[in-house]
Design a protein that fits this description.
mainly alpha, single chain
Length: about 90
């Protein structure tokens, strides 16, 4: 029974991570398309802020919020890397 619960919790965490990652990429993509003042530099500054928030390690944040934060940071890192790659290929 414990193994089944552990597997279900792992699946839930994985789904939360993927959902957060996908939603963050979608949000960033929309901002890049629609907001003329949303620059690569601004995106990098937001990522820096996310790193700081992650490092603050708030008491009581919980494992679910840690997953959301990790997925958000990963999405920003991927988005910025792809944006840089596009810029450098132009």
């Amino acid at each position: 029974m414990g193994s089944l619960l552990a597997r279900a919790m792992g699946d839930l965490r994985e789904k939360q991570y993927q959902d957060t990652f996908d939603a963050t990429i979608a949000q960033l993509t929309m901002r890049r398309r629609t907001e003329m003042n949303f620059t690569l530099h601004e995106c990098q500054k937001i990522l820096e802020s996310e790193y700081i928030n992650q490092g603050n390690n708030w008491v009581g944040r919980g494992s679910l919020q840690d997953i959301v934060q990790e997925a958000t940071i990963a999405a920003y890192e991927v988005f910025i890397a792809e944006w840089r790659h596009e810029r450098d290929q132009s």
